[in-house]
Amino acid sequence: MRHSSKRARRKRLRREIGAFSAVLRSSRPGIHYTATIHAPLTPEPSGPYEPDEIADRVRTALRTTAAAAVRDQDPISLPAAQDACAKQLRQPQELGLPDGATVTASVQLELADEDRAAVKELLTAIRAQAATDTLTRQRTEALARELAHPAALLARWLQQPDAQITQPPGDAELEALARWLRGYTKDRDEPVERQLLTILRDFLAEFPKEEQKRLLVILLANGMPAARKPGHADQVDALLKPPPTTSETSPTDTS
Asked: Per-residue confidence at 243, pLDDT binned at 50, 70, 90?
């Protein structure tokens, strides 16, 4: 080959590195990318050289670079893996080639049929698991909301076949368990109003005396007019008023 013409050497080198394939591991075990790498030299060597030796060096170096670029890429997102690989390969690489030639490569990533089928199965499994997790979380949150009040806990306890009706749990035990359930970790997208209600309920529960609770509610009501919500303040005031006595609600005696 050393005695072949310059044109023949150049033609052979272009054929060897103009478009060559590589099989690259992905972040998912058993699933691989199929890459087609294009690696032109700039400038092309002009003096005597061995095309096969240069081609081997270029292919080895670029396959190694491509493999490192996609090793942590998920094949579920093929475009992201394509971008990551292309970014690495388009960086000029000096491989000690004749005439100071550098390599700036491009790449096209694909998935073989069996790898594409594996990705499809993986997506199906992920979606099924996500649906199961969502339903489980919803059931858990619904149960926590249901049992976040002592009365609901007592009602659920009474439904048990072995419940000792004459020996129900104490108020303190029920309140402690209900408070723990109210502190169940919420999703970040839960409405602020619901989170605030939970905080207020727990705050009021820290003051067991009725007069303490009334004072706290009055303080809350006093802040509502400042927020231009006097109607809500009136509703709180009505809530604090004692219920009318029997004499107040009975018809007036006209005899």
From this structure: low
